[in-house]
C-alpha cells in the first residue's frame, strides 16, 4: 500500500489530520479546505502587520480544521510580503501545532536545489510531519528581478531544465545520489544522513499543462492555480489524470486547486473587498504595482472600459458574497473540476476581512472548532 493508500484516523492535538498528502473533509465540506497566503500588504499598513496577520490566520485555520496553510513565493511586488517562504513557514510553525505548512510554492529555478533541500529539511526538523514542499517553475516575478535573483540573464524554466532541477532536489532530499555522481558525497542537512526521518512530500504547482503532465508521469500530487488561470483548470487537471502513473508517493491522482474566495456578512461588503484585489491585479498587469488599495480607493477609481472589462473578468473567477453564496460557489467549482482539495486565497486589502472570511466559510460548512 502506498503512503496515501489509506486515510489515517482523525489527527491529534499535536499532529495533522489525514496522511502526508490527503486531507480530511470536516463538517459538510465536500473536500478538505486549505489556505493560500500571499501575506498581502494593504495601503496604510506594513509588512510587519501583514506577517502578524498570517500568524493569526494560521492559528485560526488550525482551530477551524483547515488542512494546510501554504505561502507563495513572490518578489519585487510592494503589495506582497512573501518573498521568503521558508522564513515565514518557520515562524508559523512556532505558533501552531497541527496544521500542515508549506510552500505554494517555491519557484525552484530561482534557487540551487541543495539550498531548498536544506531549508525544507530544517523545517521538517522543526515541525515533523507537517511540512509540504510545493514547487513551481515560473520566476514569481518579472524577468529583470528573476535575473537579479539568479545572477544570470539566462532563465532556466524549459522542458529539460525544470525536470533536471526537480530530480536533483529529490536526490538531495532522499540522500541517494548514486556512487560516482559528483554530488554523491554531499548531504543536505538536516536530512537522512543524520538518521532515519521523514521528509516533506513534494508537490508540483502549475498554471498550464507542463507541470500537470510532469506531476502525472512522476506520480506526484498536483496543485493548479485556478485563481489566476481559470481557463486552463479543467484541461490541466484532465491532462494530469490521464498522465498519472502510480508511484511510491501516490497510488491515485490527487488534485488541489487554488481558489480566490471571500465571504463577508453581506454581499456589498464582499464586493467592496474583492474589488481591492481586482484593482491591485490590474495595476500589476499594467506595470504599476503597489500596495493593495483600500475599499474606498477601489470604489472611487475611474475604470476605463478596458480596465472595467479586465476587473470584471478577474472577479468572474472569484467566489465571493455571503457565506451561503460562497459555499454554493465552492461546491459548484468542486463538482465541475473534481478537485480533491480546495485551497482558498483572499488577496484583499484588510487583514480583518481575510480573517473574517475564513471564519465565515468554516461556519458555512459547520466545520468544528478544534481545541
Number of helices: 12
What is the number of E strands? 9
Gap from first CA to last CA: 32 Å
What structural class do you assign from the helix and strand content? alpha/beta
Give the percentage of residues in beta strands: 5-15%
Radius of gyration: 20 Å
SSE string, helix = H, strand = E?
A: EHEHEHEHHEHEHEHHHEHEH
> Uncertain segments of ≥5 residues (pLDDT<50)?
1-13
Arrangement of strands in the largest sheet: 1-2-3-4-5-6-7-9
Taking the sheet with the most strands, its summary is: 8 strands, parallel, barrel
Helix content: 40-55%
pLDDT averaged over residues: 91
Shape: globular
Topology, element by element:
Layout: E1 33-37, H1 47-64, E2 68-71, H2 85-94, E3 100-107, H3 113-126, E4 131-136, H4 143-150, H5 161-174, E5 202-206, H6 209-218, E6 222-224, H7 233-243, E7 255-263, H8 267-285, H9 295-300, H10 305-315, E8 318-321, H11 323-337, E9 341-345, H12 351-364
Helix pairs in contact: 1-12, 2-3, 3-5, 6-7, 8-10, 11-12
